[in-house]
């Protein structure tokens, strides 16, 4: 069986949930269950000139398509790889006079592919585009209005010489995009840059405490002649041991919300009622609503008042962040944390949200010591709530580790970076750029930690000199300690 092949999974029908995916063999944490290239994908409207339209990597200098002047690519390799999907789009954009919105572009790419290959099963796909759910019948008035607008815009863009599709089928495609579009990220996995359709991934049902995670891998087009050449794809990765016959589940939403909030979000976006164990039994809700323990337990009214204050503060913070008023964000966070302190427990989600924002913004402002304190409290709370192999947890621990490192707290920083690395090896895999970056940090902080343990005074002197950009002599790391790394994700 080929790695990442579809032979390891099967589609089955489950009562009340429709189709789902089942494992055909055993998987261990970090195993790639399957990898799937996009059926079709496009870059977001706002980023079309800074993201490669083939591999979705952010690059400093991109080559523009000389014909439509709209599409951008890393290099000739990416441009050639894109031509099959871009050919029709290129001439349609020239004829139309401008590029339409991302939704229209994605629908057009799907329909051009159907024109080329038919709407039956594509190679490596478990289901056809025809079979994907569209939920159009469940749309509210506003969504129906948006759908009509999209269909009209599509018909205006779609060339008359291309195969013509019925209104019902075009509506089906837009419904599929609305319900099944998967967010694509840049090579660092830190910014959403586009949207794609992955028919096999669409078959995985939701669970708030899933046994799988999805990561977007931009591929490696540079190693064209080597065995490591890979295409852009999503990878479904196991989070814990999975036995043959187990259903494969992913989480469509962030777990760090009360079960009622997650269920509302899932109903609104995906049109189903979540019946997972965590929602039915409201597991972890008590932690997410925790109040300060001790003899002087705060009154219900006091808790209600502080939670309302937290919600109001989060709104003010969003506004200040949008306007780039970061010192105002810090002031709002400090004031809110002072009021939350005597009332909310360490795992309360309103406290954790403020801690997260405070640590992130203070790090940006290079106020690392205060940022590190908040980041540590945030991570301590997250570790009690999240699945131990959760990607968001891994990213948060990484951020906290880097913040401690910048603050000169090398022991805590190295410990957090190692913990983040262990999580991201499972959720992202060793070849993902963010895991590779983390491995470099892990080696660097390990070297600094040894220096610190040998001579604290000397470590701080060297650190101070490095921060002043002075040239300093550092003893080379012993070769036996400097081994190369053993190893190579909408919502």
TrEMBL record:
Q: Assembly state and interactors?
A: Interacts with HDAC1, HDAC2 and HDAC3. Interacts (via MYND-type zinc finger) with NACA isoform skNAC.
Per its record, how is this protein called by name? [histone H3]-lysine(4) N-trimethyltransferase
Main localisation, per the record? cytoplasm
- Which reaction(s) does the protein catalyse, per the Swiss-Prot or TrEMBL entry? L-lysyl(4)-[histone H3] + 3 S-adenosyl-L-methionine = N(6),N(6),N(6)-trimethyl-L-lysyl(4)-[histone H3] + 3 S-adenosyl-L-homocysteine + 3 H(+)
Record InterPro entries: H3K4_H4K5_MeTrfase, SET_dom, SET_dom_sf, SMYD1_SET, TPR-like_helical_dom_sf, Znf_MYND
Origin organism is Eulacestoma nigropectus
Keyword Protease on this protein? no
Q: Which GO terms describe its cellular component?
A: cytoplasm; nucleus
Q: Which residues form the SET domain?
A: 7-253
Concerning PANTHER family, the annotation shows: HISTONE-LYSINE N-METHYLTRANSFERASE SMYD, HISTONE-LYSINE N-METHYLTRANSFERASE SMYD1
GO biological process terms held by the UniProt record: methylation
Q: Give the MYND-type domain ranges.
A: 52-90
As for subcellular location, the record says: Cytoplasm; Nucleus
What Enzyme Commission number(s) appear in the record?
Answer: 2.1.1.354
- An MF annotation (GO) of this entry: zinc ion binding
What's in the keyword line of the UniProt record?
Cytoplasm, DNA-binding, Metal-binding, Methyltransferase, Nucleus, Repressor, S-adenosyl-L-methionine, Transcription, Transcription regulation, Transferase, Zinc, Zinc-finger
Q: Which domain of life is it from?
A: Eukaryota
């Amino acid at each position: 069986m080929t790695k990442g092949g579809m032979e390891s999974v099967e589609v089955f029908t489950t009562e009340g949930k429709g189709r789902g995916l089942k494992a055909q063999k055993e998987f261990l944490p970090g195993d790639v269950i399957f990898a799937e290239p996009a059926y079709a994908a496009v870059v977001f409207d706002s980023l079309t000139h800074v993201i490669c339209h083939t591999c979705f990597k952010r690059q400093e200098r991109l080559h523009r398509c000389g014909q439509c002047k709209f599409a951008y690519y890393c290099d000739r390799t990416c441009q050639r790889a894109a031509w099959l999907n871009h050919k029709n789009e290129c001439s349609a954009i020239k004829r139309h006079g401008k590029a339409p919105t991302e939704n229209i572009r994605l629908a057009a790419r799907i329909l051009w592919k159907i024109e080329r290959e038919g709407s039956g099963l594509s190679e490596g796909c478990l289901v056809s585009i025809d079979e994907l759910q569209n939920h159009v019948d469940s749309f509210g008035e506003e969504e129906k209005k948006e759908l009509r607008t999209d269909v009209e815009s599509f018909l205006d863009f779609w060339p008359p010489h291309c195969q013509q599709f019925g209104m019902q089928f075009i509506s089906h495609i837009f419904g599929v995009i609305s319900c099944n579009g998967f967010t694509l990220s840049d090579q660092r996995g830190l910014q959403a840059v586009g949207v794609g359709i992955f028919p096999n991934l669409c078959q995985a049902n939701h669970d708030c405490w899933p046994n799988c995670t999805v990561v977007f891998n931009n591929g490696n087009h540079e190693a064209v002649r080597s065995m490591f050449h890979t295409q852009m794809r999503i990878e479904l990765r196991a989070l814990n041991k999975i036995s043959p016959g187990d259903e494969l589940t992913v989480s469509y939403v962030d777990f760090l919300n009360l079960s009622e909030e997650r269920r509302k979000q899932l109903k609104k976006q995906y049109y189903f009622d979540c019946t997972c164990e965590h929602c039915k039994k409201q597991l972890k809700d008590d932690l997410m609503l925790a109040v300060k323990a001790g003899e002087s337990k705060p009154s219900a009214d006091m808790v209600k008042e502080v939670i309302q204050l937290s919600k109001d503060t989060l709104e003010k913070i969003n506004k200040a962040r949008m306007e780039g008023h970061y010192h105002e964000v810090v002031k709002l966070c400090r004031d809110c944390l002072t009021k939350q302190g005597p009332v909310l427990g360490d795992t309360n989600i309103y406290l954790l949200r403020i801690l997260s924002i405070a640590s992130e913004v203070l790090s940006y402002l290079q106020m690392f010591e205060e940022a590190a304190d908040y980041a540590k409290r945030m991570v301590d709370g997250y570790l009690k709530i999240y699945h131990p192999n959760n990607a968001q947890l891994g990213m948060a621990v990484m951020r906290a580790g880097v913040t401690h490192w910048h603050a000169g707290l090398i022991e805590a920083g190295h410990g957090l970076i190692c913990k983040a690395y262990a999580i991201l090896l499972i959720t992202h895999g060793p070849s993902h750029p963010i895991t590779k970056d983390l491995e470099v940090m892990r080696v660097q902080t390990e070297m600094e930690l040894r220096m610190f343990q040998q001579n604290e005074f000397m470590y701080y002197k060297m650190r101070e000199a490095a921060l002043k950009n002075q040239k300093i002599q550092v003893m080379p790391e012993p070769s036996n300690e400097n081994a190369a790394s053993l190893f190579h994700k909408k919502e």
